[in-house]
Amino acid sequence: MPVYSLNGEVVDQIHLSQGVFGLPFNEAVVHQAMARQLANRRQGTASTKARSEVTGSTRKLYAQKHTGRARRGDVKSPLLRGGGVVFGPRPRTYRQSMPKKMRRLALKCLLSAKVREGNMRLVQELDFDEPRTRDMMRVLSSLGSDSSTLILTAQSTPGVVKSAANLHEVKVLPSALINVLDLLSYKMLIATVPAIRNIEQIWGE
């Protein structure tokens, strides 16, 4: 793949690992990995009170018979306002497990799709002397990124993160933290060469 400068000029060519960037797309595995990630970030703290937990008297409101009205129990009945909730949500865990090989395959399928569809750009290095949104916009424009963009760096780079902080559709991540949801959420992928080598070392086993 060509490697670009921050001005959008091709300055080098590198070879990518076929085991990471040359795999066919497996829709079932990618979907399962996405569903797992969405489920695992749910807190599961929604809670309601059953009639045994609602504060109130257990006294029968009025006699069972001879009133001409419907039968009625106590004020905590689910049929009354302020009463208990029938089959309401309770605190629970939504966590899903997934085999390690399938998780790795989903990531590699998405990285391969970025390359195949021409939605990945490589740069030698990406850093700024001082954070400036204007500089980040200039780099994105020179690399042909006109849509949502995920930027991968080899290490945490506060200058790049701050430069992209005010751009709504741009996210910066260290390469070790790539995940299925971000790769699906952002159309364009911009990565530094050290970040790509780091990905190949981590996920290419």
Summarize the structure.
The chain has 205 residues and is of the alpha/beta class.
Question: Could you outline the blueprint of secondary structure elements for this entry?
Answer:
Elements: E1 2-4, E2 10-13, H1 18-21, H2 27-40, H3 100-116, E3 120-123, H4 133-142, E4 149-153, H5 158-163, E5 170-174, H6 180-185, E6 188-192, H7 193-203
Parallel strand pairs: 1-3, 3-6, 4-5, 4-6
Antiparallel strand pairs: 1-2
What does this structure look like?
The protein has 205 residues and is α/β, with parallel strands linked by helices. It has a domain at 2-24 and 99-203: Ribosomal protein L4/L1 (Ribosomal Protein L4, Chain: A), CATH 3.40.1370. The protein is built from 7 helices and 6 strands; from the N terminus they run E-E-H-H-H-E-H-E-H-E-H-E-H. Helix 2 packs across helix 3 (100-116).
Element order: H for helix, E for strand = EEHHHEHEHEHEH
Radius of gyration: 27 Å
Please tally the β strands and state the result. Answer: 6
Uncertain parts: none
And the CATH topology of one domain? Ribosomal Protein L4, Chain: A
CATH superfamily of one domain: Ribosomal protein L4/L1
Q: What proportion strand?
A: 5-15%
Helical content (DSSP H or I, runs of 4+): 25-40%
Quick one: CATH class of one domain? Alpha Beta
| Number of helices, counting only DSSP H or I runs of 4 residues or more | 7
Reading side by side through the largest sheet, how are the strands ordered?
A: 2-1-3-6-4-5
Termini, distance in Å?
21 Å
What's the shape? Answer: elongated
Q: Mind describing the biggest β-sheet? A: 6 strands, mixed
What structural class should be given to the helix and strand makeup? Answer: alpha/beta
Q: Write down the oligomeric state.
A: single chain
Mean pLDDT: 93
Q: Any guess at the CATH architecture of one domain?
A: 3-Layer(aba) Sandwich
